[in-house]
Amino acid sequence: MGKKPLVYFLCTGNSCRSQIADGFLQAIGGHKYEVKSAGLEAHGLNPRAVQTMKEVGIDISNHTSDVIDPDVLSEADFIITLCGHANDNCPVARNNKAQRWHWGFDDPAKTTGTEEEIIAQFRTVRDSIKERIAQFVQEGK
Predict the structure, then answer these.
(1) Which fold has domain 6-139?
(2) Which candidate in 7, 10, 11, 60 is catalytic?
(3) What is the residue extent of each domain of the chain?
(4) Is residue 83 flagged as an active site residue?
(5) Known catalytic residue at 11
(6) Per-residue pLDDT reduced to its tens digit, 16-35
C-alpha cells in the first residue's frame, strides 16, 4: 500500500481544538491517514482537552503542542484550520497539492464560568469535532 495522505490540523496555539481533531482522526481514521497538528504558536496541551478526550476513550496526554513546521506543511495533502485566526494567518504551503479547508469551532479555552460550565463547553466542541472527523473519514476525502 502507498503512503497514507497526510492531514495537518492547524490552530492558534495547538492546545485544544487541533489536539482533539488529531486524536479523533488517529482513532477513527488512522488506518487511512497520517495525522499531525500544530499551531501558529505552541501554548501547551490543555488539561481540559486531555480530560474530555479521556472521557471518550482517547488518550492525547502524550501529544505535544508544536509550532507549524514548514516541511510538514509542504508535504500535507490536507491542511485543515480549526479557528479563524489560524485560517487568516496560516503560512502558505510551498506545494499546490494540498486541499485547504477551514472548519471553524469555538475556542473552549476561552469559556468563562464555573468549572462545570467550562467542561460542558469542552465537551460540546469535542463532540462537534468528532462529528466532523467522522464525516471526513466516511467521505474518504
Answers:
(1) Rossmann fold (3.40.50)
(2) 11
(3) 6-139
(4) yes
(5) yes
(6) 999 999 999 999 999 999 99
